[in-house]
Amino acid sequence: MKHTLKPAGILLACSFLSACHMQKPVAPATTATAEATAAPAVWQSEAYSLYRDSVVQGAYVARALSRTELVSNYQSPANAFVDPRIEFKFSINGKDNELPVGQNHTIVAVPKAGQNGPLETPLISFGQHFVDSTPVPANTYLAPNTALKIRLDMRPVLAAFKQHGYYTTAKGDKLYQADFKHVFVAGSVAPLSWDFDNLVNKPELELKDPDGDGIYEVTLTLDAPANVKTTAGRWQQTINTEDFPQYHSDYPLSDALYNLALEEARRAVEPDSTFRTGKEWAGVWTRDISYSIILAQATLQPKVAMNSLLRKVTPEGRIIQDTGTGGAYPCSTDRMVWAVAAWEIYKVTGDEAWLRKVYPIITKSIEDDVQNAYDPATGLVRGESSFLDWREQTYPRWMQPVDIYQSENLGTNAVHYQANVVAAHMAQQLGDAAAATRHQQLAARIKQGLNQHLWQPDKGYYGQFLYGRNFLTLSPKAEALGEALSVLFGVAEGAQAQQVVSKTPTVPFGVPCIYPQISGIPPYHNNAVWPFVQSYWALAGAKAGNEASVMESIAAIYRPAALFLTNKENYVAENGDFAGTQINSSNMLWSLSGSLSLIYKVLFGMQFEADRLVFKPFVPQALQGTRTLTGFRYRQALLDVEMSGFGNQLQTITLDGQPLAGAAVPATLTGRHQLRIVLTSQAPVAAAVARVTNRFSPETPVVAYANNQLTWPSVPGATAYQLLKNGQLAGRTTEPRFTVSAGEYAAYQVVAVGAAGLESFASEPLPVGSQSQQVQLETVAAKSALPYKGFSGKGFVEISQAKNPTLTIPVTVAEAGLYAVDFRYANGNGPVNTQNKCAIRTLRRGAELLGTVVLPQRGTGEWSNWGYTNPLPVRLPKGKTQLTLTFEPANENMNGEVNQAMLDCMRVVKLQ
After folding, report:
1. Helices (H), 471-621
2. Using the 8-state DSSP alphabet, how is residue 602 labeled?
3. DSSP tally for the chain: helices H, then strands E
4. For the packed helices 337-349 and 352-372, what is the interaxial angle rounded to 10 degrees?
5. Which residues neighbour 115 within 8 Å (Cβ) at sequence distance 6 or greater?
6. Shortest CA distance to 529 belongs to which of 556, 561, 500?
């Protein structure tokens, strides 16, 4: 909403606090309160305004009453205007397997005149699309606490089990009766959720059939106000944080939010002196603590930071990958941000014992990744987007965990680049010149790969990731954390870095995790802003010298912290609300660390190096004035810093009244000292910010092939379609069809293009003209007698650390060429979205490493759920070749116990 009046700058405390208890949004600011404005806005947009002591967003106001007290009248609008058209679909075993992608049931949840009791759907047959055509009157919304009984006819599925032993899902997969565990409902309105992978953790969404007649039912309460979390009306500091550095400025809001972050930082420490990830997130998470340590916690709480990092190391001395897609490592590989955090701790503390402890952990982990995840063809590293670990939120729905392993993401590669830079620094520090050279070379390869394969000159920022199967293509979406890290770590330099900051899209409430958003996916990583990402974006803006970007980031971090009275995990990009995302937490470690980083690393510009602390301040003109940071500990010294002026250029910097050479405090300094900084008060050269409306890309096409023609249902909002052949643009049409050649092998994909040229994800690769053969693996090892179904031959082979750790597999081809080799497998050791039970093997030809074979989890107990591993490109000579599939030390997963799968056959497909 555009402000037509300047919002109030001063309110009487009594009238303000009474407003904090209002349950509905209040009217816009009145003329009387507008007249009370004491000062102009520090930063202002159509969405909200930032003042010296307050934040104003429409009717909502947050204010700093002092350096240790904040009040807010914010109330989430999440329940206010909910559409009564409820979309939902059913799910067997927590999978999206009932209806085609993009097709949902709908029910209009509006009671008819005189109706009592819960609303009720008609009896819907599993797999039969139902649409309620009841018209919805204007200004009609879902009533709070609407009870809805959902009725499902599972008799067609049960009949298929009885007749065939399996049911064929909408995706063409065979679901065997032995694997049938649960039926859930997913949907658009809480408590419904589109998070299929986590339905197994929401028993309230399971349908039951107590009388065994095949009719399953569940009654839900929709739009329950109790489900929408609200914040308190006041925060007042209750924990003593005087032992932390104390910050004072001319901006009461900034001071109060700094003290809020300090208090929450102290609350984030568990009794065992490790970090708690968030109020709702217990335990130590590798990526969360690492990003937090880099932002601020190495400086603020180095001992806790050390303890937390060491908690994330296996007994064998490898960094633990957080649980995630397909059983985590190596589907997810962003664990290497641990190395960057460990180096930050060393730079802050100078602790040589720490350096010697972490160096072998880092190098051993990198060695594993070189074998398991480094792609020699592109120079990049495979694995899921760093921190974006919820498949449907940032990937097309067709991508399985193994496809995510095969992808090569911007943020994850920036992390691996910097991990190798860090390893090289450590090696130099420890006198290992050969290791330093090796890691420098690995870093250089990753940097080259990023700039060769992910850089988009026409857009001025990097693409999101390479993805596909046998042929990779680039997703052109912006990925905010990756864009920021590419600037911070020096993957992008000079004018290129400035382009990234000035051209990466930002929406009115901040820089979204990805842009454009994905249609039909609720906010969490999609359609959301994460304050810690915004903090890295602020650091990138400062490094690139972009004042407008830095000021916008500060506002985007201060607004939610002030209005919500806590450092939340995330908020909706569309409206800035905390309650509209799928999951959220208060007192979030990396969010509060990001707020602190604005003071330490942006305004005061502290940059820690191996042997010194360098000051490179960046103070936007809107925040000019005098500020102090007292009691700041740097190794054996205690610094009291005073700074005045604005800009990013030093006029003078003195230590105890004497000029400080290089603006650098030496690591050898001891005792308490006075540091004074005067900035030139000259603004940097003006630079742009790519402010855009929050837009959504078209839905991903679902493509079929028959009679030399690709066809797909028309995609809503699409104005054209692009054809990709083997990952390369091969055609364009406005009709939902393409004629293709059925001769030589090719993998085809279709991209829908919508308004403003926004592109959908590419459709699932569809092979045409493939020449393939299968090698049945029960011929090379004793076949298993376990009672699983769906294998293609006469049996299958179990592999684990103890059983068949090496398989020798003969393959014979009629002509030499490039082939794709993969394996049909089952892994029922765990769910798709958590636990570390991905099986990993190495494929070799003699001593030659051909690549890593990844066998991710496919569902708890789902041993009849068969799929294919990642394909490995292998050049085979004419005739017979012996391949070996082996379990090697680098193939250890994080749990060290379960590395098991069932192998059906090896598939060999001729590519060239």
Report:
1. 480-488, 494-503, 531-543, 547-564, 589-597
2. I
3. 18, 54
4. 160
5. none
6. 556
Mean pLDDT of 416-420: 98
Q: Backbone phi, then psi, for 356, in 5-degree steps?
A: -70, -25
Contact 672, 635 (CB under 8 A): no
Q: Tell me the C-alpha distance between 293 and 340, whole Å.
A: 9
Asked if 76 contacts 572 with a C-beta cutoff of 8 angstroms, the reply is no
CA 700 – CA 518 distance, rounded (Å):
9
User: How far is the C-alpha of 488 from the C-alpha of 689, rounded, in Å?
Assistant: 18
Largest CA distance in the chain: 89
- Per-residue pLDDT reduced to its tens digit, 103-137: 899 999 998 876 777 899 999 999 999 999 999 98
Confirm if 268 and 239 have CB atoms less than 8 A apart.
Answer: no
Q: How far apart are the C-alpha atoms of 102 and 100, rounded to whole Å?
A: 6
- Cβ contact 69:13 at 8 Å: no
Question: How far is 197 from 195, CA to CA, in rounded Å?
Answer: 6
**Lowest model confidence (mean pLDDT) among 178-192, 219-233, 643-657, 777-791:** 219-233
pLDDT, greater one: 589 or 26: 589
How far is CA 528 from each of CA 514, 518, 571, 575, 580, rounded to the nearest angstrom? 8, 11, 6, 9, 9
Indicate the residue type of 210. P
Q: Which of 809, 772, 813, 773 is nearest to 911 (CA)?
A: 772
Least confident residue range of 51-55, 516-520, 527-531: 516-520
Look up residue 877 and give its two tokens. Answer: 């000579």
Give the HSE-up count for residue 213: Cα atoms under 13 Å, Cβ half-sphere: 5
pTM: 0.92
Q: Tokens 């075993």 appear where?
A: 93
From residue 385, alpha-carbon distances to 192, 391, 513 in Å are 26, 10, 11
